[in-house]
Amino acid sequence: MIYNSDNKNNVKLAAEKILNGEIIIYPTDTLYGLGVDATNCKAIDSLNKLKKRTQKYSIIISSIDDINKYAYISQKKKQKIKKIFPGPYTIILNKKKSYLSSLVNLNSETIGIRIPESDFILEVVKKCDKPIVTTSVNYHGQKSIQNIKEIESFFNDIDIFKKGKSTNSLGSTIIDMTKDEVKIIRYGDGDFVV
Q: Is residue 178 within 8 Å of residue 110, measured between CB atoms?
């Protein structure tokens, strides 16, 4: 089914689907994303099967204060993050032990965190009261699908919460903050300066 992400009632619907272990497609400030409950191993396993690979995932949280639940962060780095979140960035931090599924990290000591500038998905995450896994809409080894018509035809058995027709995005800028020296791993839509 296709739903309008501008309709406030669809926030509740999307949250219910995620809490039921379903996969949804939703808009962000960069690409459309595939999302599932980051604490649900079965849901992440379904996502891996859909993507045709097992991979590490980033999570979406709804506030900067929530970072402390999942990762170690210094006050200095928190100040930097406040300047870019919400926004088109993924930050990589050293992870803490948490109730996230082990399939999010696959034994990695780091975790990717996003707070996109997208009211719809941030409201969904708040309603779920837990992070969601986020990944671009594509199959393993293929480019991210940005055209909404193509997304609808390739992923027609997944509920899509759509906003507008399509995106024209480079994805999020990925920033490694695991060490003292901050490094950009990938330049995307954000214009962060180290």
A: yes
